[in-house]
Amino acid sequence: xxxxxxxxxxxxxxxxxxxxxxxxxxxxxxxxxxxxxxxxxxxxxxxxxxxxxxxxxxxxxxxxxxxxxxxxxxxxxxxxxxxxxxxxxxxxxxxxxxxxxxxxxxxxxxxxxxxxxxxxxxxxxxxxxxxxxxxxxxxxxxxxxxxxxxxxxxxxxxxxxxxxxxxxxxxxxxxxxxxxxxxxxxxxxxxxxxxxxxxxxxxxxxxxxxxxxxxxxxxxxxxxxxxxxxxxxxxxxxxxxxxxxxxxxxxxxxxxxxxxxxxxxxxxxxxxxxxxxxxxxxxxxxxxxxxxxxxxxxxxxxxxxxxxxxxxxxxxxxxxxxxxxxxxxxxxxxxxxxxxxxxxxxxxxxxxxxxxxxxxxxxxxxxxxxxxxxxxxxxxxxxxxxxxx
Length: 389
Description:
alpha+beta, FAD/NAD(P)-binding domain, D-Amino Acid Oxidase, Chain A, domain 2, 3 domains, 33% helix
């Protein structure tokens, strides 16, 4: 269930291993890849940020290799541009050093430290006291990847049904039963990759986790200012949060994104500041974990909200490492929503969560770098299904 990049990657993996398998992908929207798969910056991650030994660390590195192979096979354009992670203040250096060590532990190749001159060599308009260069990072259009996965699923004999919002999923001893209003589908096995709706379909099986949606708004640089960022330029992220902070990303078409921020979304699938859905907001506000998170990190939350509504505050964050940027260089850009699992104790889940319960496998937390990791996540899930774990 779920016609995003992860769900389609799982379907492809199953069909490649089991030719002739009767398989159906069920997607509630009228097309595949509508939500997180189609609302991201397109970065190909390398695995430098993630805790060694975590699923994110392992599957991101493997997934990157599989993704590039898939793109080559299907003639999907991508570009390996490299990335700079830039410290602009001395106090950021310990966190930058930790990222470097994590990257080395995760097997990320070619990492190097750059001083101010080295930074300017790669990004002439970026200023910082020290940076890490990650040469294996790049960009791709994940909507094109998702469409190609869907095409291959159909080529392999799988069926994709769109426009089918699920009402209820029952997990019984003989299989799974999915209800769509008057219609019921039964399957020996169900794999749920529902992104922003994953906790709802899991029901009680989500346990101590609930999805809290975070909206990220981007600006784009006006064409005359695109030269200010050659590739991908990131700040040193706050180690307490699984967000990277506002940064620059040059996309395949030459457009440069600036952002995103991270603020509470008032609708799980509402792409705009003022989009509101009572059911979604009620889900967030009645979750004890949200309030514990809010109390613990209210200063950070307030700063993100201020930056979201005050363009000059957003500009100040970007000018820390690109000081030439002007307010007129920032034009309204796209928006994305991150499906972030939050525990009852208020902690953010900082790894992929894949949970097998009876005849159903639930992907309960798969934010970034899930797109990069999608083909490896698929391999991990299918290995579990075939192994009966």
